[in-house]
Amino acid sequence: MVGSTVETYGTVGVLFNNAADTSSDTMLHDRPVHLIETERWDRALRIDLRGTMLCCKYVLPHMIEAGTGSIISTSSNQALVGDLSQAAYSCAKGGCDPAHAQRGDAIR
Question: Which domain holds residue 72?
């Protein structure tokens, strides 16, 4: 994804992170932490949290080299207040928030 963008446009100026598996199957099976299947937990963190990190990992070197760039990451109210019925989604989004500030420092 990043390689083809750089090949086509020469650099990456903006990254918009909006990763989340909100399919009905996933959302219906997200549970309180003591009831959720480990595989469902892992999937949510892999897509929602790790997916966001990987996009930044491969975009940031191009932004740093260019000396400019913007990363916009959406999260969720559940990152701040949690939702006991959707533990995996809430935790994954909560994990994204602290990392947002760190990524901005890398470009400056």
Answer: 2-107
Q: Does residue 55 surpass a pLDDT of 70? A: yes
pLDDT band of residue 2 (cuts 50, 70, 90) is very high
| Catalytic site includes residue 9 | no
20 contacts: CB under 8 Å, gap ≥ 6: 47, 48, 76, 89, 92, 93
- 96 or 30: which leads in pLDDT: 30
> Catalytic pick from 55, 59, 87, 89?
89
**Would the pLDDT of 50 be above 90?**
yes
What CATH number is given to the structural domain containing 26?
A: 3.40.50.720
Name the domain count of the chain.
Answer: 1
How much is the pTM?
Answer: 0.78
